[in-house]
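Recall the central idea of this unit: under ordinary conditions, the amino acid sequence of a chain determines the structure it adopts. In this exercise we apply that idea directly, starting from the sequence alone.
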Amino acid sequence: MKIGMVGAGQFSPSFTGLWQLHPDVDEVWITDVVPERAENLAKKYGLAGTYPSFEAMLESDLDAVALLTQRWTHAPQAIQALRAGKHVYSAVPMATRTDEIADIIQAVLDTGKVYMLGETHWYYPQVIWARQAQAEGKFGRLFYGEGDYVHDMDHGFYAAYQYSGGDQWKSTASYPPMLYPTHSTGGVLGAWPDAVPVSVSALGVVDNRGDGVFDKDVSMFGNDMSNMSALIELSDGGMVRINEFRRVGMAGQIDESTHRWYGTDGMFDQGARVNKFYSRDETIDLTEDLRIGRADLSAEELQGIDPALVESFASGVARVHDRNRLPVEYDGAHNGHNGAHHYLADDFVRAVKSGLQPPLNAWNAARINLGGIVAWDSVRQAGARLPVPQFGACPLPIVDVTTPAR
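Accordingly, the structure predicted from this sequence is:
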């Protein structure tokens, strides 16, 4: 297959190399609104070439496109690409409006093409362990979960928005936290596969830093809130509390994502440093089993990677990660986001090759995005409890990504 990368930003090198290494990918191309960035990335990583525009890429013979662009552009570009006959891999979030989600789902149904959301936390070791524990009944009935994505602006976000936003970066840096919910919801619901958000109530905290970022007069989103919390009702009677914070006093080297699952027979606490499962009779320390190693990358491989992103880019894997399902070519290759990148890259290729939908298909993506989108509406309505639109489960066959590749 041939893949076209849309966007040559700081996150793109995380996947260009992985798709180049994959035995079922023949060519990787790139385009960017700043042509020099695309040309430089193509040269550095030996890509097949560049396209002058996204539209030119859609008119080509490429099989698929990977959208690594601005957050609010993902849905319109995904719909356009699907309608043009391309398979789509999208960085998070899926969309910023519920009607965009409906349009993506309809485009998948109409075209039969693959849509995949690249939510990294689906393959965090803690989420993998919790998903397996839930399948084995270790939690009993899950009734409550918590997901936190507490990423302070000072830890890389200023630089990222300045890189992507140009002179108007402050207008985009005010992106509403609840419109970027999938690191928190994707973790909790990633281990709670049958639960669907049905209603949500959320509140926000008005920012007082005074640096012109979360300023309604500057923000293209009309947002002045840096921290938001939501309580989501689930279809099985359970509930999830979500925190999305962008002003929080926490050291940058500590994992910004934490999750907790509470069941009638057991609970799992994924903290920033310690991971433990509790039942009525015992406490199991999972910290070492779920600890992520660090990939041994050369200075050349890390050249040009923002220092704030190095730890993510150079992450290794944990014991719970099944390496046998991955191509042998990925052994020792750069990874990211607690070992997730290898699995996301392979999932997409497997789905396209098989013509089946991936685990993180449009319906699953909707499940972990909708709560945040409606939460943003709730914040602007002083915490009103609002219904979440329902799209059901994926009606199309899903590829089995667990089969060994070696």
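Residues 362-379 form the longest helix (18 residues).
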